[in-house]
Write a structure and sequence with these properties.
The protein has 250 residues and is α/β, with parallel strands linked by helices. It has helices at residues 3-14, 22-29, 33-45, 68-73, 76-86, 102-110, 123-130, 154-160, 186-195, 236-244; strands at residues 19-21, 49-52, 55-58, 60-62, 95-98, 116-120, 135-139, 143-145, 150-152, 165-170, 174-176, 180-183, 199-205, 213-215, 217-220, 227-229, 248-249.
Length: 250
């Protein structure tokens, strides 16, 4: 079998299972492990799969948005873990931005009461932060999107332009090693695309299920993301790719 034929079969196999092992593929095709590694490296370079130590992962695609109430229930332990990691990057006196995501909401809930300015377009972040009187809370206002519990639109992100933002904490539906962070909802993608360049440091909070995933609308290239904070279940090979791309990883 020619290499291109073998590679097409490997991709078809990944359509029915999330991962493949090099040793099993070598047996299946009756070739050496090195031959399979070359195939996987080629497909990884073509952004058709994610090469890992000992095999490969398929690139997931998410095209359907979940309502906020559903997202709040998903991967709760991982989101709390990520929030605890993120706290060390928040210092007294800073001005920070929180987006409208369930992962960032976990950070808002964990945030200690300290002298700080928080700007947010997240309706759900307002309640937890209101209970912390030392924090100067600025809600962007704007048109409320009931599906995502967020405020968005030109009036929302233009308000943020008035401030010097030290750090932005944001999330996404998926992170692709080539094209960056993406969202399902156009209104959220457009908002983040306009806001993130206004912030001095951009910190992406995402659990392991979003790594290697492509959603509908890309809003932040790899060059826009300064740091990725994820949970302990994240694939090491994918994190190594982020580091090689110049992104700090926690």
């Amino acid at each position: 079998m020619l290499a291109r034929q073998r590679q097409r079969v490997i991709l078809s196999m990944l359509e029915t299972q999330p991962s493949l092992r090099t040793i099993e593929l070598a047996k299946h095709f009756d070739v050496t492990d090195e031959t399979i590694r070359r195939d996987l490296e080629y497909l990884d370079a073509e952004n058709k799969l994610i090469r890992t130590h000992g095999g490969a992962l398929r690139i997931e695609r998410r095209d359907t948005a979940q309502p906020m109430l559903e997202r709040l229930q998903a991967n709760r332990a991982q989101k709390r873990e990520i929030a605890q990691k993120a706290l060390k990057y928040i210092k007294e006196g800073q001005t920070i931005f929180f987006d409208a995501s369930s992962t960032v909401l976990a950070l808002a809930e964990a945030l200690p009461d300290m002298p700080l300015t928080v700007i947010t377009n997240a309706h759900d972040c307002i309640g937890p932060i209101m209970e912390k009187p030392k924090i100067n809370l600025i809600a962007t206002g704007g048109k409320l999107d009931r599906f995502s519990h967020s405020y968005a639109g030109a009036s929302t992100w233009s308000m943020i332009k008035k401030f010097s933002v030290d750090k932005a904490f944001f999330s996404c539906n998926g992170v692709d090693i080539e094209r960056g962070a993406s969202e399902v909802a156009e209104i959220q993608a457009e908002f983040k695309e306009n806001v993130l360049p206004l912030c001095n440091e951009r910190i992406l909070l995402c659990d392991a299920s979003k790594l290697g995933v492509r959603s509908t609308r890309f809003f932040a290239g790899i060059d826009v993301i300064d740091r990725v904070i994820t949970d302990s279940g994240a694939d090491r090979a994918f994190l190594e790719k982020l580091t090689a791309a110049g992104i700090a990883v926690d």
